Structure formats: structure tokens, C-alpha cells
Amino acid sequence: MQKNPYMPMPVDVVKIVTEVTTKDIKTFRLAFVNKEDEENFKYLPGQFAELSILGKGESPIGIASSPTQEGYIEFTVQKAGVVTSALHNLEEGTRMGVRGPLGNSWPIDYLEGKNIVIVGGGFAFTTLRSMINYMLHEDNRSRFGNITVVYGAREPGLLIYKDELAGWEKRDDIDMYVTVDKGDETWTGREGFVPTVCKEVGPASENAVTIICGPPIMIRFTLPVFFELGFSKENIYTSLEMRMKCGIGKCGRCNVGEKYVCKDGPVFSLAELDQLTPEY
Amino acid sequence: MEKRLIKKDALNGIISKLSGEMPVYAPVKDEDNVLFKVLEEGMEPLVAYSNTRNAPKNFFFPQTETMMRYMRTEREIKLSGEDGEAREAILFGVRPCDARSFILLDKVFDQEKYKDPYYIDKREKTIIVSLACVQPPYSTCFCTSVGGHPMSEEGADVLLTDMGDNYLAEFITPKGEKLLERMGDLPAADGSADEKKKELSESAEKEIKSHIPGKEIKPWLDDNFEHPFWDTIHQSCLACGTCTYLCPTCHCFDISDEVKGSDGKRIRTWDSCMYWLFTQETSGHNPRPSQKQRWRQRLMHKFKYFVDNFDEIACVGCGRCVRYCPVNIDIRKIVTDISKL
Lengths: 280, 341
Prior knowledge:
The structure holds two protein chains of two kinds. Chain A is an alpha/beta fold. Chain A has eight helices and 15 strands. In chain A, the strands form three sheets. In chain A, strands 10-9-8-7-11-12-15 form a seven-stranded mixed sheet, sandwiched between helices. In chain A, helix 6 (about 195-200) packs parallel to helix 7. The mean pLDDT of chain A is about 95. By secondary structure, chain B is of the alpha/beta class. Chain B has two domains: about 1-205, no CATH class; about 220-340, no CATH class. Chain B has helices at about 10-20, 95-110, 115-125, 175-180, 190-205, 220-225, 240-245, 290-310, 320-325, 330-340; strands at about 1-5, 25-30, 35-40, 65-70, 75-80, 90-95, 125-130, 160, 165-170, 255-260, 265-270. In chain B, the strands form two sheets. In chain B, strands 1-9-8-7-6-2-3 form a seven-stranded mixed sheet. Chain B is globular and about 65 Å long. At the A-B interface, strand 6 and strand 13 of A face strand 4, strand 5, helix 3, strand 10 and strand 11 of B.
């Protein structure tokens, strides 16, 4: 019989980064205790895993690191419920569990050879960051066309991965448009809502795919911009969230119509979402 | 297939012998209910019962089940899985509708990519002896409308059919044939038994008086996620979850942790799509915030989503949800009403 898919693998928290001024979003770097588990944990950008705090439970979180980063995996987690609050109280060096990788990924094969537009809002930038680091890796960069990133947050203190954003800004093989709804006295960058910035940037839709993650309100106002630019629903991808437990399509709570977000998603194209019941 | 005859008065002796070799779970009277229980010395299984109040799914998918135990210290966690610990057992006297439910549950728990080791371990080690419904027990039985039959062998390793003086015992699977070796010498059944069974089967089928257009409503369900009809089902629903707990095919569960000092365990328990907490997210968002949406989910899951995924209706027509709903919501009526829209 194959391995028990409900058993978490032991990992050590090797690094914790507080991402935002409100201190409720942290990135956890986890290293596998067993070499064998690390080798078996083969993932692609867009997948997620169940973070396991024994005694508290599990929480499904998108993988924020890229498979090109070896020796560890990263998760950016907002403090919200029982498990994520316990996670936020952990110190470096603590041992915890991880179960995965789970779900499908961004459609890497389909994205190859195309121009990629990444649109993110606030804290929903985690698996997009995974995708960006994946594409920017020297082994992969030539597999993709132009990379355009529009990333926004309400205020400068809420942008996550600030050091990485600065690093990407310096590169000439990725076009970065980082924006905040409202700047502060130290902010010298762009001000404006994500949909407006997308309109200004106006990426060409020919041979291009957009990947978008963010708060529902941002997505609602951004999609019309991309439709106007000529992007079809087949070429806009997003990632869904639902309450989950098992992560492998058995416990029955994360279905949207006949699809389980944990197993058939979380990544869907807008065209695929149109075929599903509007219940998410 | 091996076919043998068991004299009616010999059956209890055979069961009793088997229960000395491995646990035999069989329907027994328990106060006002008939429930599956392990037979202890001197106990006899009920064979003239209609059906158990609870579906037998809990043998493979218990209402509460420990998935793993763990020990936590400052720097270490020790985990041990609770899978692979099932013992060989016999589940005796399962009605054909319930036996068929195992085939449907297998589709969920025993998939190619993700196998549920807890379910599969117990399922593989249990021999299922079904008891055909020569006389379908309830007016609420509707197995023939959802792909079943009162004398179906589907899901059974051994099927017993009451032929009057004898039981016809059909040993359907290799697991069933292995059981035959432990049942002693039994006379072979001849062609006349087959004929008699055929007659019984036809009359049993006629005895099923309740029919629903289970398959026929699928096209309507495909197109009518938003329809005023969905406002008419749920008003009286108490969201008690009885229908899902008694349902042989409902398989939703919750996973939670229980801790005592440094020791703990992760358990799974039955859960229900009838409860609002089932899909409640930490953010406050709930994709199915009202009982209307939850009832639609239950019906859609059984008659559309499961059909989309596995080409089977996730209902075996046992009628438990109809008989035990405290406010008399009748899934047969809902399906029939939909077919008239």
C-alpha cells in the first residue's frame, strides 16, 4: 500500500520573516527533517500543502517558495484562526508537520512560450511569488516570454516580499509595477489601484496569459480591464480558496459543483470557472 | 461461482462456529432498534429483520476514528499512524442496498491517486455476507430506481437467499470462496435453485412499490442551479443531519486534534453538509450560508455531482432518510417534483 496521505512529514521552522507592519503576516521557512520526505515533496508553483500543528490541527496554505529553491519550502501565512494563530506563536527551531504537495499548479506547460502577466493584490501574492521565482530561475527564464507583474497593496507597509520586489525591480528581464492605494511620507513609488495600473500598463493579449490573485473586489474590477485588452477567459487563471480538511477529495467540503478545489483545483481558468456552479 | 444450500436450522450453528474464529458482526435487537453488533457466545443473528437503523458504513468508516497518535516534546514530535490495524472480520446480514453502498464508497476512498488507508484496510479484511430481500421490507424502499435490486449481489462476497427450507448461498468473490472453506460441507445447489431464485427475484422486484426518476432529473439539475424550486425544499429542515448520518453513502468528515498533556491524537468524525459550520471559513465567508444552499448541495451531490464524477447516483434507495427525518422531508418527493418541472 502507498504511503498514508494523512500523515504529516516532520519539518523544522528554520526562519520566520514578519512581512507587514501590522505583523499579522509572516513567512515561515521550513526544512524537512528526513531527506527522503524532501525528495518526495516534488511540487510546482500554485500547489498548496496542509501545515500541521499537532494539538491544534491543519491549515491549507499555498506554497510561497519555488521548486527552484532547494533545501526548504516557504509559506506566507496570515494570522486568522486557531492553527494560523498557533503558527504565528512559533519560534525558529520548532518542529511541526507538513502534508503535501496538494492540488494542481499554475498550468506550467500551457504557459511555456507565452508572455506572462501576473496580477496580485495584498497578501494573495504567495503562489504568484512562487511562479515568478520559478520563471526567473536561469534554467527556466528562456521557457517564457515577457514577464509583467502588477502588484498592489492598500499601503506600503502591507506589501509583502519587499526585498524580493526591490531585487526584481533591478532586473531587465521582468517588468515590475508595484503600487499602493495610498502612499505615506516615505513612499516614492506608484500610487493607484491595481485595475487602474493594469489599464495604464496595458499588456498585449496576443500570446499572453494572465494569472490573477487578490481580494474579490480587486479581481472584480481588474477582469474587465483584461477583457478589454483582448484576453479570453481561457487565458486568465486564478486560484480558489475553500474550507478544507483532507486535501485529497474525500472529506467533501470544498466542492464547487462536481469539482473539489483541493484535488481538481485550486487553479482554474475563468473559462473553467464559468462551467462550475457559482458557489465559492 | 460456487452455489450451496444451507438448511435453515443449520445457519446459526455455522455462524456461531465462524464467530469463534473471527469477529462476526450481525444484526441483533438492541432495545427498539436492530443494529449491527459483534456476536458473542450465545448470541444469534436476526435473519428475519427488515433493516438496521444505522447503515453499516461505520465498519469501514467509523463515526469517530483515530487517524494517528503523537507525542510532542520541546524539539521532537513522534507520530504513529493508526492504519493497517484492522482484523479479519465478517459482516453478516447486510441488505443488498447497503452492500451496494460499499461499491459507491469505494469510488471515493479507493481512488488511484489518493487511497484512504483506514477505509481500505478494513474493507479489504472484511467479508460481506448479504441477505437478499425476498420480501422488500419497507414501503420506502426504492433501490430499483437508483441502480440497485432487492436481490442484488453487488458489493457482497456471499449472498444468501431465503428459499423456504434452505438458504441459497452464492459465493461470489474469492473472499467469499475462502469463507466457504470454513463453513464445512454444504450440499451443492442445482439448477432448480437458480430457477426458484429467478422467480423470487422477479416477485421481489414487483414488491418495490416506490419509484423515483433518479436518472431522469440529471439534465434538469445540470441546467438549473438557480431555480425558484430550490426555495421550496428547505424551509422545514432543522439541519439536524440525521439524513446524512443514517445515509449509507454520505462520506463527509471532519478532522480534529485532541490533546492530553504531551500526548495527542488526530481523529476524524462524520460531518454533514447540512451544517453551516461545514463550509464556514475563518474570514467569515461561507459559500453555502443558508439551508437552501445546503439542501441543494445534498441533492446535487447525490444526483448530479457524483454522477458527473463516477457515473452512479450516490443513493442506494434504502429509505432511511425518508423514515427518520423528524420533519418528514422526503427525497423521493423532491426528485419526483423536479421531474415534473
